[in-house]
Amino acid sequence: GERAFICAECGKAFSLKHNLIIHQRIHTGERPYQCGVCQKSFSLKQNLLTHQRIHSGEKPFSCQRCGKRFREQRFLLNHQRTHAEDRPGTAAEVQPGGSRSAEPHEAAGGPFACARCGKGFSCRSSLATHQRSHGGERPFACPDCGKAFSQKGSLKIHRRTH
What we know:
The protein is α+β, with helices and mostly antiparallel strands. It is 32% helix and 20% strand. Strands 1-2 form a two-stranded antiparallel ribbon. The chain has a two-stranded antiparallel ribbon with strand order 3-4. The termini are far apart. Residues 80-107 are annotated as: Disordered.
């Protein structure tokens, strides 16, 4: 359709005025939706509703394979990677409320899954590197200033500043 509503800030065009108004929050920093429990603010109502599950404990997404429940669909999808080695290449897609889709989807990642967040990796060393991001382990120290990093690549980038 015609895109008659144009953002004066960046030129992006929208077919609905409502979508332009929501987009403009990127530029203004407006966050009109506030959590009544912790006062955290959001630019989108859906993001507030998702956030509120932290406080309510609601977990509407469940894994068809093991029954484990999750607050957000992205957490479920990460978890499903842990089942990839049981049945390589597929994992059952689950809808809110636990209803199951008969259509399989491609499982991302690989057979080495992080027990903390469910993210999958194709090799064990990549999993080990990732796991440092959870534990705060920083084995790579800058010889010039002592600043430490969890990944060798981050140290290399940092060393360019000296």
